[in-house]
Amino acid sequence: LTPLALRFLTIVYIFVNPVEQPLTVFVIASLIAGLVGLIVASIAMPQAWPAFRHWRLASRKELRRAAGFAVAGLAARGPMEIDKTMAARLLPLATAGVYSGAARIIGAVNIPVSSMIQAALPSMFAQARSESGIQRKMLAMLFFLPIGYGGGAALIVWQFVPVIGWVFGDAYVGIEQACTMLCLAIPGTMLRMTSGAILIAREQPLARTSVELGGIASIVIAAIILTPQYGILGMIAAYVFAEWMMATIAAIFVLKHGH
User: Fold this and answer.
1) Which helix (H) or strand (E) element contains residue 162?
2) What is the spatial distance between Cα 180 and Cα 162, in angstroms, rounded to a whole number?
């Protein structure tokens, strides 16, 4: 949470006190925030860091196993960024800025669920290695809580859309409508994140990677088809469709492969 808090404070500072190069300031602040977070973690959790004398090179088996999780981690970032890249290529710059702003707002709603999943991962890894696998009670909680939160968060954001328009001002005309429509993706995003974490805990990184690479491809194809004709609404439709497609397929993987 330390890096997130420091980035948030940087954004507030830039918003209140405009600077000549806000992006440069934010990048430098993000780097410092990451280093501060690393220092805080090393002090708060010294037992998690092995002594230097115990360091060694990873074996081939360990590298192969870790590579799958590394690729899964890279693929997981794709669906959260490719839509903004496509918007910049397919929409006028001003409209692409409106879409990106709305997408970032909706993305921030996912942070509590992401934190919950990270907190649950150690237990999921431990249970996944037992004979019975991840307990049904935990699976039910991991499925229903994010979906319920996603639905509630979507309704709250929808209610506060006029406030979002007021905060961003005239430079982001249309952000209210964009946020309203992107709310449709929130429960799907929650389900995708939860299902992906369960697949990782079960050591099925290939399944998660396949789902998210398929999602990236679907966003690209749907955006190319819909955006030229429908503008920002087409871009939003492509994103919502891809999120729910990934969520559905990932959930099927989780339910089909019981352990």
Assistant:
1) helix 161-168
2) 10
How far from chain centre, in Å, is Cα 33? 19
Amino acid at 10: T
C-alpha closest to that of 246 among 194, 205, 203: 194
Q: Which residue has the tokens 């999780």?
A: 69
Q: How is 203-230 classified by DSSP, letter by letter?
A: T-HHHHHHHHHHHHHHHHHHHHHHHHHH
Length of the chain: 259
Tokens, residue 131: 């004979």
Cβ 64 vs Cβ 201: under 8 Å:
no
8 Å CB contact between 184 and 150? no
CA gyration radius for the chain?
Answer: 20
Q: Per residue of the chain (259 residues), give pLDDT as tens.
A: 677 788 888 888 888 888 888 888 888 988 998 888 888 877 777 666 667 777 788 788 878 777 777 777 777 777 788 899 999 999 998 899 999 999 988 888 887 877 777 777 777 777 777 776 777 777 777 777 777 887 888 888 888 888 888 888 888 888 888 988 988 888 888 888 888 888 888 888 888 888 888 999 999 999 999 999 999 999 999 999 999 999 999 989 888 765 5
User: In the numeric block, which tokens belong to residue 155?
Assistant: 């309704």
Rounded distance, CA 16 to CA 10, Å? Answer: 10
Burial class (CB in 10 A: 0-12, 13-18, 19+), 57: exposed
Q: Rounded CA gap, 196 and 198, in Å?
A: 5
Tell me which residue has tokens 């669920």. Answer: 113
